[in-house]
Structures are given as C-alpha cells and as structure tokens.
Design a protein that fits this description.
The protein has about 425 residues and is of the alpha+beta class. The strands form 4 sheets. Strands 5, 6, 7, 8, 9, 10, 11, 12 and 13 form a 9-stranded mixed β-sheet that branches. It has helices spanning about 30-35, 80-95, 140-155, 170-175, 190-195, 275-290, 315-330, 340-350, 360-375, 405-425; strands at about 15, 20, 50, 60-65, 100-105, 110-120, 130-135, 155-165, 185, 200-205, 215-220, 230-235, 235-240, 335-340, 380, 390.
Length: about 425
C-alpha cells in the first residue's frame, strides 16, 4: 500500500467504466482524453479523478479538490514505490499473460488496496487471486501479520517484496569477519518478522538504490543467524528474466516453529482424555526436538524455575517455559516482546488445566517475564503496568549460562520494587 499523510490520493490507475487504465500502459493521449471527458473514477471510492501530467511531478491520477477518498492510502508514495509497482505489473503481464493484472487493486473483503493483484481463471471456479505488495516504507511486524492474515482469510495468496532502499548491509569489514561468501544485513522489524515467520525475504531494487536497477534478490540466511544482524547469501537476477515463483506462495504452509504441530505418527490428544497431559507433553517435546534440536536431556536447567500460578498449565514447568522461550526469544535478539501476544499463543497452543484459571495463567506468564528479565533476556521497564519489552539476549549470546539462584534473587527484588511502584501508583495524589 502507498499514499500520503493526508487524504490526497496519487494513483497510478483509474477506472473507465468496467475497464482499468494505468499510467505507463495506456498512452498519455488516451488518458488525457478520458480525463478531459471526466470519464475516470477512483478504483477505491468511485469518485471522479483527473490526470495530472505536468513536467514537475510524476504523472498520476488525483481526486478533485476537496474530495475525500473513503479508502485512503496509508503510506508515503515515493518514486521508488511507484516505479516498483509498474515494474511488477509489467513482469506479471509478461509471465502470466492469461491473468488479469490490476495495479492498486481494491480488496472489498478486507478494505485493503493491493499494490498489484493478479487474477487467474480456474475453469469456472472462483478465480485465483495473488496479491504482490511492494513495501518501501517502515511497517511494524504486527501490522504486516495483520495484513497477511486478512489476505489469507479472504482466500488471497500474498507475496511481499521489499524496496531496494530497505537493503542495508553491514560494512565490508564486518562482513569479512563472517566469511567472504556471506553478507550481513541490518534488519528492521519487518525484515525480522519475515525471517522469523518463514516468509521469503525478497528485495526488489526498482531504481538502483542498492542493487542494479530492476534486480530481484533473495536473502537466504545462515542456519545460526540472529534476526537482528543475519548473515547469509544474497543472490540476485533481473526481475524481468525470472519466471513467476509459484512455490514461494506456499510459505505459510511450510513447516515452521510458529506453533507446535502434531507429527503424523503421534496421537492427537483428546481434550476429554485422562491422559491428555502425557500426550500434550509428548508432542511438545517432539516440537522442541524437531524445530530447535532440544531434548529432555539437553534442555538447560534454567527452565523449570518455580513460578506462582504454574498450576494453570497441564505440563511440566520446564516444558512450558522452554516452549515460550524458544518460540519468542531464541534467535530473536532485538525484537519486541509483547505479553499479550505470549498469552494468546499460550492459550492457543500449550496444554492448560481445565477449566483454565486465567488469573493464574496471567500471573504465571507475568512472573516468567520477570525471570527472563532478571536473567538478562529482556529489557523490561520497572514499574506498574509493564506489558512489553525488548529482547536483549538469548542462550547463544549471553556471556555465560544464567545462575538460577541469582536469577531468582533478582526476580524477587524486581517483584518487590514492582509492588512498591504499584502501591505508590494506587495511593499517590
């Protein structure tokens, strides 16, 4: 998505009746004729738009003065973003000649505007829709996940390409320390979210910011890379020389440690079964082994610390604590930690006692958060109402393993300070 901070829309495409016209595809003369006849409308809200084709600013369609679009754009349009959308549309038309390619397509089901949408006929069934987003502006991990979820819930496959301006590499000396064959990236929150969720990390440099113009590069991280400064390979090729990467659309279905999943040979636990806790522990251990190569024998003794409210879980304390750590902290140094997100994931995937005591559960998660902060994994502000933090370390980056007794002592001290801060908050003027 793109746009301006105000409600003024600078569009690359407009509607002429049922037909979509796009700058760069139709001739300037035809677009001028339709604009002068007031025959063009906004694809989002249906209001009239006119062509602006001067010599100072890039050509675009815009609403009439005073008009407010009901589907406003939310991000700043730049020359890079504009060129990227047109390049992607051109590539799709060449590689998918049977598809309808729509620039700045409105998605009524989700109230989104896809940068480019490919619509493919499926022989009488509901058409297949593929949205390609060219993301140049900053975007939070939470917002990206929200947009991705909306696309998938609407039955639309989405593929995200990042602008070349987002490709920031470490200095050559830093890269040389890690090996001549690797590059080291400086990632923002969006890049880290893509890497962690298993999405392909693709950079399209439409205007030659960091790579040769019109080059598409895919970053392939090394297995042990940290998301904040990942190392890996960055092969690139001209976009127009590439076929459409159909396999990349299935990345959400690929195996990834977002959540524990049942192995085909493992029995799925029955919520009503008296052996539910045993079955749940079995598949949780299997998840840790398969995804993180951590077994009961190799799991660090740091996990399993006593936590108030841990009876809300239907498994060993060391197991649920390890699951939360490996899902949200391991290899994610520099990312955000949101306690509400941890609670949602816990209630969805971890084995809980029935009926679930939410007060106990939230107390256990809050206390485990304090333990992680005391151990040096989280930078957690002191005081009442703490709900989020920054991940500052994991087991691979700490100078030495956490000392259990020292962690417990520091966690008790932090809880004492938190109670005092809460008391001051409630009794203050």
């Amino acid at each position: 998505m793109s746009g301006s901070a105000s409600n003024r829309q600078n569009l690359l495409s407009a509607c002429h009746g049922e037909r979509r016209v796009t700058i760069g595809r139709e001739t300037p003369e035809e677009l001028r004729r339709l604009s002068d006849a007031r025959a063009l409308t906004c694809p989002g809200c249906g209001a009239p738009v006119v062509l602006h084709a001067g010599t100072v600013r890039a050509h675009h369609f815009a609403h009439l003065p005073g008009a407010v679009c009901t589907l406003p754009q939310t991000e700043p349009e730049t020359e890079e973003h504009r060129a990227g959308k047109l390049l992607i549309a051109r590539w799709l038309r060449e590689r998918l000649p049977e598809a309808e390619i729509v620039v700045e397509a409105t998605i009524p089901e989700t109230n989104q505007r896809a940068d480019v949408l490919a619509i493919l006929s499926t022989g009488g069934r509901k058409p297949r829709r593929v949205a390609l987003e060219y993301q140049c502006a900053d975007l939070s991990a939470r917002e990206w996940r929200r947009r991705h979820r909306l696309y998938r819930e609407a039955g639309i496959e989405d593929l995200w390409l990042l602008g070349g301006s987002r490709l920031i590499r470490e200095t050559p000396s830093a890269e040389k320390k890690r090996g001549n064959a690797s590059v080291v990236l400086r990632t923002a929150e969006l890049e880290r979210a893509l890497l962690w969720d298993g999405a392909p990390l693709l950079f399209l440099d439409a205007v030659g910011e960091r790579l040769p113009a019109e080059t598409l590069a895919r970053f392939r991280p090394d297995p042990e890379s940290q998301a904040l400064r990942p190392s890996g390979r960055l092969p690139g090729k001209p976009l127009l020389a590439l076929d459409f990467p159909w396999p990349l659309l299935s990345w959400p279905d690929a195996a990834h440690p977002n959540a524990p999943t049942f192995h085909s040979s493992s029995p799925v636990p029955n919520p009503q079964s008296p052996v539910r806790a045993f079955s749940s522990e079995a598949w949780l251990w299997e998840w840790l082994v398969q995804r993180f190569r951590v077994s009961e024998e190799t799991l660090t003794p740091f996990f399993g610390l006593p936590v108030f409210g841990q009876e809300a879980f239907a498994c060993q304390p060391r197991l649920w604590q390890a699951a939360i750590y490996y899902r949200f902290v391991h290899r994610r140094v520099g990312d955000s930690w949101w306690l509400a997100e941890i609670e949602t994931w816990t209630r969805t995937y971890l084995p809980l006692a029935r009926p679930t005591n939410l007060r106990q559960l939230r107390g256990a998660l809050a206390e485990f958060q304090e333990i992680l902060a005391a151990a040096g994994f989280l930078s957690l502000p002191m005081g009442y109402g703490r709900v989020n933090a920054r991940i500052t370390a994991d087991l691979t980056t700490l100078p030495q393993p956490p000392d259990v007794q020292e962690v417990l002592r520091l966690a008790r001290y932090r809880r004492t300070l938190a109670r005092e801060a809460r008391s001051d908050y409630l009794t203050g003027p």
